[in-house]
Amino acid sequence: MTILEFKSNIARKNRIDKIYNYVITSLAIFGGLFFLYKFEFTEWYEIKSLAVNVAPKIMIRILYIFLITVGLYGIWRIPHLYSFSQIKCLSPIEDKLTVIEKVKIKLNFSNQKVSDNSFECKYLGLLYNPFLVRIFIDEESYLINVQQIDPTGGFIDFGNSNRVKNKITKIILKSKNPES
């Protein structure tokens, strides 16, 4: 398997999730714009004319700001879900396989799928958040992709997948340079 095959395999597996996430973000943006338009530019709601109680006005403004913010965050975040970290390393494949074994043991990976030069494992995070970790090795580098597994779907993981990816990267770099 080559790097391009590995990347296209992951993109193909996640095509439905990507479409689903973009639909959710579009709905959030359109919902926020709908409430923005209805509340600010029309006489849609009678609380707008009441000068006594400002709490409903504030709540509707918070609602449309929240929806638009979540939608824009989703549009920015979704492409990053499928990004890879690449670690350049010219060590032999056998050395890289031993490093991957160290990572598996140190992070207690489970449900491992192994092919010639790619690995797919599950990792449980701090609060038992499940992550899908994919690692590809070739003659020149390691390629790492981490995605949080959420049974209900979604793209908001509060940076947890990047933290897991950084943890794996640190272990690989430490194994690559044991004196540091």
Helical fraction equals 40-55%
Query: Radius of gyration, Cα only, in angstroms?
Result: 22 Å
Mean pLDDT: 83
Q: How many individual β-strands?
A: 5
Quaternary form: single chain
- Beta percentage is 15-25%
Q: Strand pairing plus helix content: what structural class?
A: alpha+beta
Summed up, the helix count is: 5
**Largest sheet entry:** 5 strands, antiparallel
List unreliable stretches of 5+ residues.
none
Quickly describe the structure:
The chain is an alpha+beta fold and 180 residues long. Helices cover 54% and strands 18% of the residues.
Question: Could you describe the 3D structure shown?
Answer:
With 180 residues, the protein is of the alpha+beta class. It has a 5-stranded antiparallel beta sheet, with helices on one face. The longest helix is centred in the N-terminal third of the chain and has 27 residues.
